[in-house]
Give the backbone structure.
Amino acid sequence: MSKMAANLVTDSLEIKLMSRIARYFFLLCGLLVATFAQAQLSIEITGAGADRIPVAIPNFSGDSAIAQIITGTVRSDLERSGLFKLIEANETGLDENSPIAYADWKARGADAVAAGSVRRTADGRVEARFRLYDTQKETSLGGAAYVTGANQLRAAGHRIADFIYEKLTGEKGVFSTRIAYVVKSRDQFLLQIADADGQGAATALASAEPIISPVWSPDGSKLAYVSFEKKKPIIYVHSLASGQRQIVANQKGSNSAPAWSPDGGKLAVVLSKDGHSQIYTVNADGSGAPQRLMTSAGIDTEPRYAPDGSLFFTSDRGGSPQIYRLPPGGGEPQRITFEGSYNVSPRPSADGKTLAFITRRNGNFQLAVMDLASRQVQVLTDSGKDESPSFAPNDRMILIATEIGGRGVLSAVSSDGRIKQRLSVAAGDVREPAWGPFLK
Amino acid sequence: MTIKLLLPVLLSALMLGCTTTPLPEDGAGGAPVETRSGGSTVTQVRAGDLDASGLPRALTDPKSKLSQRSIFFDLDRYEIKAEYQDLVAAHARFLVDNRGFKTLIQGNTDERGSREYNLALGQKRADAVKRSLILLGVREDQVESVSLGKEKPRNTGTGEAAWAENRRADILYRTADGRGEF
């Protein structure tokens, strides 16, 4: 199956241009990152963001081949987030115990420096140790050591990047998380899992028929999705480690739009068994009969639980597809969206404060976010065919499927719309992204 | 196990006004003989003439009305247009006369918008065809309506011509012994 795994390529990082100077700096950084990137990675940088934190990551000491993979991963993770500016640092020989020349680093423009080392352990694994310094306060921000298999060096890099990200931004990093998505390549549909940067793609399911709507279980061990392999939509729960698949909804008619309950015990699903598409819950282990959640005369679909147990969904009960919210204890759903005649695919953020959704404006389908307290809506993209938004677990980025040059690609958009990063495959369409939970 | 298929005579666009005399159902659920008073519009099919999928050619021969399996819909609509009423009635007649046969109605949509919302819209189209068939006497257990949403476009192009081709419900057939298209 690994031969069929299409490798995701990060082919563009677009950041809105703030100034010519920023652009110049950013191009330099782009060249820097490109040289560290692995062979299949091609990162194109077309703009710059404001207020990026300047950080220097000199090569870790120790085995230079190992150190280069780890530090290269740290650098490209931080760069790709759009929140950091990498300060060139070609020196070698620095490790986590070296004295730090704060004044020198400050003079070179770095607000923070990470120094570290790598070594092979007695059992053949690799240990990476590092410490992070604040050059303004001239103090250590802490350090860590990660031991990984020799073939998982990039995982160590992601862990280190998460540490640096959290120390410098105050938010948890998502570099160690995984994404799921579907590749349509010739007549095959591949459900793939990759690192958040698109590397290390592995195929969980290959099918001649469509696969849609993958969603991660809260613990990150399973995916629920809709497969058409039996000529109709049926919902499966797939354990990623074992490859074991369980049908959780195969009623007469269509079975679709699975959404995990916050505790992972149930799935909200859409069934047409009683006449038209309505929302039910089923047990995540496939046991028992579906329980109907609501009754409406029209289409109810795309359920998604918010952290408080309320359920957002799309319904045409008011004459056009709009987003509604069912309170945690049940009751009367309230309509949430009012602007325009097509608002679909609601996705509440992990903190419950924001709703991402797709809105149709002048015939274009675009990603929008709503601040749920003020109900203020902001359209984040200017594309035409955005679909299937998915929040990163730290709510900082939203992954969507979109189309560029007639090809399906994934795009990660920052919640303020400023940073855009594109993931595509060489031969095929990528769609149906789902960002996985934090690594436990 | 062989289907005891006798002599299905093709149903034409004019069939609604014609008399159709089905033979008593046989256990294997084959298509019975239909004798008709029709003239030039009738195409005769040889007994036992099955296509590769195991269905009688009456359902698959391009000359037969029943080989027309698609009902097309307007944008965001799911009611069956007048021009497709005869076709739906012809399929209903076949299913009434051949109780062993089952159908799967697959609803489809054009490529615009949410995959899951389109899946629900395609379901409405399939349901509309199913309801018509049942009103015309087809048994509930002979019909299942499902949706493929926008996932299986017949025309993968973009623009109104392609979209119109994809706003569609298709009728698939299966014999009592499980041969056929689904």
Summary: The CA atoms of residues 155 and 162 of chain B lie 5 Å apart.
